């Protein structure tokens, strides 16, 4: 396959991937490299990427924004979202911009409380022994920490659920 055909094949494959969902540059590179292991991949991919960006078909900024929104809808917190974006090769400045935008749109404290309510439904049983209460509290903290919430939001959600003041 000559370089023009290789460029066209890469471009078409990239368009196919991008037509399904947004992809970061790194994700595209990994997926296309596995599909086309031969040829002058790096140089050709760089040309394909420039063309995709010129046409506004690929944008790491747009990817970060869409990714953040989808993860918030899944109930993930800011720490986890930031980490996943970094794992997908999005530049720190773009990650920070997307997270700043989410900060304006999302109440992380309320999101943590909503998740806790859905998962556990009620406060920790006050009739349980002190040890059982501590274990249950730790279990709830781990649940929110795994989902990527800051300790402030975790403590807020636990306190609100235990106080029965949740909305």
List keywords for this structure.
mainly alpha; Arc Repressor Mutant, subunit A; 3 domains; 9 helices; 0% strand; RecX_HTH_3rd; Regulatory protein RecX; cytoplasm; WH-like_DNA-bd_sf
Strand content: under 5%
Mean pLDDT over the full residue set: 92
| Number of DSSP strand runs | 0
Distance between the termini: 63 Å
Element pattern in H and E: HHHHHHHHH
The fold-level CATH name of the largest domain is Arc Repressor Mutant, subunit A
Instruction: Give the C-level CATH assignment of the largest domain.
Output: Mainly Alpha
Domain RecX second three-helical: 59-99
Subcellular location: Cytoplasm
Domain RecX third three-helical: 106-158
Protein name: Regulatory protein RecX
In short:
The chain contains nine helices and no strands. It is mainly α and 167 residues long. The protein has three domains: 3-58, Arc Repressor Mutant, subunit A; 61-105; 108-163.
Description:
The protein is mostly helical. It folds into three domains: 3-58, Arc Repressor Mutant, subunit A; 61-105; 108-163. The protein is built from nine helices and no strands. It has helices at residues 3-20, 25-35, 41-54, 60-73, 78-87, 92-105, 108-120, 130-146, 151-163. α1 crosses α3 (41-54), α4 (60-73) packs antiparallel against α5 (78-87) and α5 (78-87) packs antiparallel against α6 (92-105). The radius of gyration is 22 Å and the shape is elongated.
